[in-house]
Specification:
- The complex is a heterodimer of chains A (about 270) and B (about 300).
- Chain A is mainly alpha-helical and about 270 residues long.
- Chain A has helices at about 10-40, 55, 60-95, 100-110, 115-120, 125-135, 140-160, 165-175, 180-190, 195-210, 210-215, 220-230, 235-265.
- With about 300 residues, chain B is mainly α.
- Helices cover about 70% and strands about 0% of the residues of chain B.
- The longest helix of chain B is centred in the first third of the chain and has 34 residues, at about 70-105.
- Chain B is globular and about 75 Å long.
- Chain B starts with about 30 loop residues before the first helix and ends with a helix.
- Classes of the chains: A mainly alpha (about 270), B mainly alpha (about 300).
């Protein structure tokens, strides 16, 4: 769309000046809290001095390092779980049971309508079984996180699958004697790789920031520990908060760069 | 980035590649693991909530907990929640639409546009905890802006702890609502064809007439739909409020936390079920309206 107003030079100048001023205002609004986090995490209370103490403590505080490890492990497990659950199912739906595509789509998008908080409230009985069967560990959160990332992962994988001719690929592979496992892992998966990478990045970012489920089920993931430490060691928790959002930003930035490279190549 | 946007590509339900519905059960078995997983970790909890809302402590049928929803505490939390969602959605929708328009004025490949969409993606999706802390560092006691205002104007920005009540929550929620609006509204704005404007101008319309008679009516369903999504997003959000407000329960999600954590009072668990059910009902209504508006939008703007 043509956003610039046609017309006199003066009007045009006013418009671009307004645009710059407004963009700056939005920029300040969004940057200010992040700067405040940086400021708070590097300030020595009571004095004007600057220190990197809180940041170096991130990697020394045992509670913090443990929480970071837990969250990163959870992110990895969630990506694996999501792929194992979703990729074969979506490929199978396309190839063999196309009539179920609406059902699968509906189920995948359902977590957008059922808030995470509601799932936590109702999960007690299920988790009693999970804890009984595989033990009580923060890593069991993986099951719920796979559910939470479903809508986003589904969209990423669905658009990747739509861009290739899955049926022809699969038929060719099958006629050459490939098993279904080979079809999915060695034929379809490499072709939808960009979608898989997108889905993985979104899942990682979501898991690293997830608080609702972990906090209400009393598991010490990174956001939970950040809140806990907020009461005793504010600068440390502020540093962790800023660090985690920068990490997520980096991930999503990498994703958008990969995305762009793909679209220019096509 | 588009994968983050709940509006993007609504399903793209492609017609089945195979002609003829073959009524064989065989292939459908392949879906069992997926269905079982969704059943256990999504449907069972939801059904538990729906059933538990209509039970008392002993498990017998009772409408007592649902009736408690209409008592003072729950009603006040619901009212506050609705106010918070409405205000933050309205602010987010209007400001987000403005920001989306500003971003769109930049050429598609420009740095401004790329950075803006990437930043919006992060801020809209990423953890409420971080945002709560960021605002505490900004406007809390000893915060950056607090000190700045005190130094410059002698203002007491933390006065009466408004940051930890409804006005503060609206401010902090708006911080993630604006980016979400940008993400979901940008595609609709991009769908406005330059040709429509040229056609309007060719027929003698001025800029004002083009906007009021063509662009705004076309964008209205998309705008309202996005605003509804923002409403649902705010209504379902928990993390930001939980990290910001450590005691008390001004909104429904925090009341649920209170009901869950005080299991000493008998029957509070069932009260949490009732509150959660209420939440599902509200969000489901809003998302239903959203889907309906989205269908109307996609007729014109793709």
């Amino acid at each position: 769309m043509s956003a610039a107003l046609p017309g006199a030079g003066a009007g045009r100048w006013v418009w671009s000046a307004t645009r710059v001023v407004l963009l700056l205002a939005f920029g300040v609004f969004f940057a200010l809290p992040m700067l405040a986090l940086l400021d708070f995490s590097t300030k020595v209370p009571g004095t004007e001095e600057r220190t990197g103490e809180a940041w170096s403590q991130l990697l020394r505080d045992p509670a913090m390092t443990e929480a970071i490890t837990t969250s990163l492990l959870l992110a990895g497990l969630t990506v694996v779980g999501m792929l194992v659950l979703l990729v074969p199912t979506m490929v199978w739906v396309r190839l063999r049971v196309p009539r179920a595509s609406r059902l699968v789509e509906f189920l995948c998008l359902l977590p957008l309508t059922i808030p995470a908080l509601v799932i936590v409230v109702g999960i007690k009985n299920v988790y009693a079984w999970v804890n009984y069967l595989i033990g009580d560990s923060a890593l069991t959160l993986t099951f719920l996180y796979v559910v939470l990332v479903l809508p986003y992962a589904y969209r990423a994988l669905d658009s990747a699958l739509s861009s290739i001719d899955t049926t022809t690929l699969a038929e060719a592979a099958r006629s050459l004697g490939a098993s279904w496992f080979t079809v999915i892992v060695r034929v379809v998966l490499p072709n939808i790789w960009p979608g898989v990478v997108n889905a993985a990045f979104i899942s990682v970012a979501l898991v690293l920031g997830e608080f609702t489920v972990a906090s209400l089920l009393n598991y010490d993931t990174l956001p939970v520990v950040i809140v806990l430490l907020g009461k005793s060691d504010a600068p440390l928790s502020m540093a962790a908060a800023l660090g985690s959002i920068l990490f997520a930003a980096l991930l999503l930035l990498v994703m958008s760069v990969l995305d762009r490279r793909r679209s220019t190549r096509r | 980035m588009s994968a983050l946007a709940p509006t993007a590509a609504p399903g793209t339900a492609e017609p089945s590649p195979r002609p003829g519905p073959r009524l064989r059960v065989g292939p459908a078995i392949g879906l069992l693991p997926f269905l079982a997983f969704i059943g256990v970790f999504l449907l069972v909890p939801t059904v538990t909530v729906a059933v538990g809302a209509f039970q008392d402590e002993s498990g017998a049928f009772s409408t007592e907990k649902v009736a408690a929803l209409f008592e003072e505490t729950a009603m006040r939390a619901l009212r506050q929640s609705l106010l918070l969602s409405t205000f933050s959605a309205a602010l987010g929708a209007v400001l987000g639409a403005v920001l989306a328009y500003l971003i769109l004025a930049a050429p598609p490949t420009s740095l401004v546009r790329r950075v803006a969409t990437a930043v919006c993606g992060v801020l809209a999706q990423f953890g409420g905890v971080t945002l709560a802390f960021a605002w505490i560092a900004t406007l809390g006691f000893g915060g950056l802006l607090t000190d700045l205002l005190a130094d410059l104007f002698g203002l007491d920005a933390t006065g009466s702890g408004w940051l930890y009540e409804l006005p503060g929550l609206v401010l902090v929620y708006t911080y993630f609502q604006i980016p979400l609006m940008v993400i979901v509204f940008l595609p609709a704005l991009e769908g406005l064809r330059p040709q429509w404007r040229e056609a309007a101008v060719g027929l003698g319309a001025n800029t004002w007439q083009y906007w009021t008679k063509v662009a705004v009516p076309l964008l209205r369903p998309a705008f309202l739909g996005s605003a509804l999504l923002l409403f649902a997003n705010a209504f379902a959000a928990y993390a930001t409020a939980a990290a910001l407000v450590s005691q008390g329960a001004p909104i429904t999600p925090l009341l649920i936390r209170a009901a869950l954590s005080s299991e000493v009072i008998l029957g509070q668990a069932n009260f949490a079920y009732a509150l959660a059910l209420q939440m599902v009902v509200v969000v489901a209504i809003v998302m239903g309206l959203y889907a309906w508006l989205l269908r109307r939008t996609s007729r014109w703007l793709g």
